[in-house]
Amino acid sequence: MPFNRTQPHNDLPLLPPAAELESKAILKQAIAANRALANLRGLAGQIPNQGMLINSITLQEARLSSEIENIVTTNDELYRADADADGKTDPHTKEVLRYRQALHHGFAALRERPLTTNLFIEIAQLIKQTGIGIRAIPGTALKNERGEVVYTPPVGEAVIRDKLSNLEQFIHAEDDIDPLIKMAVLHYQFEAIHPFPDGNGRTGRILNLLYLVQQGLMDIPVLFLSRYIIAHKRDYYLGLQKVTEEQDWEGWVLFMLRAVESTSQQTFDQVQRILALMEEVRSRVQAEAATIYSKDLVEVIFRHPYTKIQFLVDANIAKRQTASTYLQTLAGIGVLREYKAGREKYYINDALLQELTR
């Protein structure tokens, strides 16, 4: 009997899948993906201030993950809003910033507790800024661009919670499945359960990163999986659909492993370029503005592409007047660009901004 896309998928199979998850092709791709991710982890550990990676790079992951859901903002608006504390920006930008807030929350939570349904709920609530919970009302259906139903997730809060409980057990099971393969499986299962009225895609993509951290494959959640998904959006959704309708686990796992390999290499290359850029700026400031040079000052202007006087004050580098002089000096030698928006003055690290948004 063919799969009925319009009927709730309450018989969604529990994990682990009955299918073969360690075919020759999967194991070969898993080796390549693990190698690329290990290289990224090693390089990220060399960053003198990892706050730069967690703040600026994860903001791009937040932007791209939200873009998958047609929540679009400009890089200028995003980084400017992130530099401000007043929250005055457009709704789409606020939603992207909430994604990163949710990622930060999950990352911090992992220090005290593992991935659980309760943490899933907290992440979704932060993304949506509502008291969102497990779906209790039927009627949810996923549609394509033509308005046709392509999938109807399970209905009934008890059914959904049972499947989430099974997902938790799979996540924490002590088995011999490669963690990257398990990540691909748990991502499909979470999206198929579709536990929330909204925010499932973004929550699921955050869970990917948190799972890699929990498994010790990453120390900080910096991986641009959303960049790969956007570039291969049709294959992403087709892969999910083929698992549901044809149990094609191999195709799906291979897609996700390629995503990890590709984005690990891209992020590795980007971090290398940022490190080289930091070294170039450090040498330049020492040569052209030696009286204000400090390692901490260079790190602050690379922590965020839009620097403000208050950032230097908060980092205990200088009082306001001296901090202003420092930033004006850096603008004078071309390291930063002074930019005024209303009453607010920013000092933009154009080279960093260009690198983060390329």
TrEMBL record:
Active site residues according to the UniProt entry: H194
Binding site for ATP: E69, H194, D198, G199, N200, G201, R202, T203, G204, R205, Y236, Y237
Example of a GO MF term: ATP binding
Residue intervals of the Fido domain: 115-258
Keywords: ATP-binding, Nucleotide-binding
Transmembrane residue ranges: none
Protein name: Fic family protein
Lineage, highest ranks first: Bacteria, Pseudomonadati, Pseudomonadota, Betaproteobacteria, Burkholderiales
